[in-house]
Amino acid sequence: MTVFYPETDIQLHYAIEHTSTEHLQRIITRLCATIPEAKSLIASELLVPEDKVPVFTSDDDISIKGDGSEDEDEGEDSYDDEESGTESQISGASTKRKREESTASTADFDNPQKRFKPRYANCINCEEEYDVAENTNKSCRYHEEPRGEPDYDDFFADEFQEDLIDTDEYRKDYPEGYIHECCGRNTLKPCRMGFHRSK
């Protein structure tokens, strides 16, 4: 067995951080093909049994008021994830407990009838990566109109290089400077809340 010294650990972490995604994917694929224990570990991190993925409907999303609270006019009774008996209900358990409950076990992988999904996906609404097994009806906050318009009158009033303002880089650096038509709020104050959704 190879013994790694602290300096080697540091060098390995540096190499992992600076190696291309494609090369790391090849290494992981090779590990899965040659070392059963590595395959089980990697599978438990990247796959989740389909029956442990929350089910949601298209009308689960609700409006958020300007102060960040839920809009009471949008079906308060049907949208309480603590008391609702719907399939989209998720208990208020801790993240650690949810993670343990949703992680695939060795027995799951030995069952040929068991179906799996990738554990991580990118949300089409907020554009963040999320864990599908921990997805709740309060996980995603977003704007119905995803691309806000630059606030030239106030936020960017002193900006002289207007061609830089309507760029992805500026949108990332100054999200508070873009107003969304759906609600009149800036990017940092979403108007909708619900489950993360993937393609």
UniProtKB/TrEMBL annotation:
Residues 69-85 have a biased composition (Acidic residues). Residues 57-114 are annotated as: Disordered. The lineage of its organism: Eukaryota, Fungi, Dikarya, Ascomycota, Pezizomycotina. This is C2H2-type domain-containing protein. PANTHER family: C2H2-TYPE DOMAIN-CONTAINING PROTEIN.
